[in-house]
Specification:
Strand order of the largest sheet: 1-2-3
Number of strands: 3
Strand content: 15-25%
CATH architecture of the domain at 3-101: 2-Layer Sandwich
CATH superfamily of the domain at 3-101: K homology (KH) domain
Oligomer: single chain
Largest sheet: 3 strands, mixed
Number of helices: 4
Shape: elongated
CATH class of the domain at 3-101: Alpha Beta
Distance between the termini: 89 Å
Helix content: 40-55%
CATH topology of the domain at 3-101: GMP Synthetase, Chain A, domain 3
Length: 144
């Protein structure tokens, strides 16, 4: 199957899952969740769903457990909304890329905001000695 089709299916699953989680999922552990990405296997039997949530690491872990527990319910909801022959099994993983990006941005801001260390000026290098121009080539006399 083409990768373009798999990407379209993954995008559709992401949109539908976001809506299902927001409107129909009633698990108290799953709150303030954003579905950040979906990767579908080539045979469409498995889908890895990346999510992020606001809150602490414990909240994220609890949210992951809630999503994993509701995977069957969400898969059934996807089956009603998608027009594909099969609906992939859902596997949820916490997306740490946003936190990593914030941490890197903070480090860059600290590095830019900190004063640069004093670097001593480089010693002056004397100019190279002047080289005389090359001498004119000698002319040879022709033998008589």
């Amino acid at each position: 199957m083409s990768t373009a089709r798999l990407a379209r299916i993954a995008d559709q699953i992401q949109r539908e899952l976001s809506e299902l989680v927001r409107e129909e999922l009633r698990d108290p552990r799953v709150k303030m969740v954003t579905i950040t990405g979906v990767e579908v296997s080539r045979d469409q039997s498995h889908a890895k769903v990346w999510f992020t949530t606001l809150g602490s690491a414990e909240d994220a872990e609890a949210c992951g457990e809630g999503l994993a527990r509701a995977a069957g319910f969400l898969r059934a909801g996807l089956a009603h909304r998608l027009s594909t022959r099969t609906v992939p099994e859902l596997h949820f993983s916490y997306d740490e890329s946003i936190e990593r990006g914030v941490r890197l941005s903070r480090l860059i801001d600290e590095a830019v905001g900190a004063p640069a260390p004093e670097v001593p000026p480089a010693p002056e290098v004397p100019p190279p000695p002047e080289v005389p121009p090359p001498a004119a080539p000698r002319r040879r006399r022709k033998a008589a």
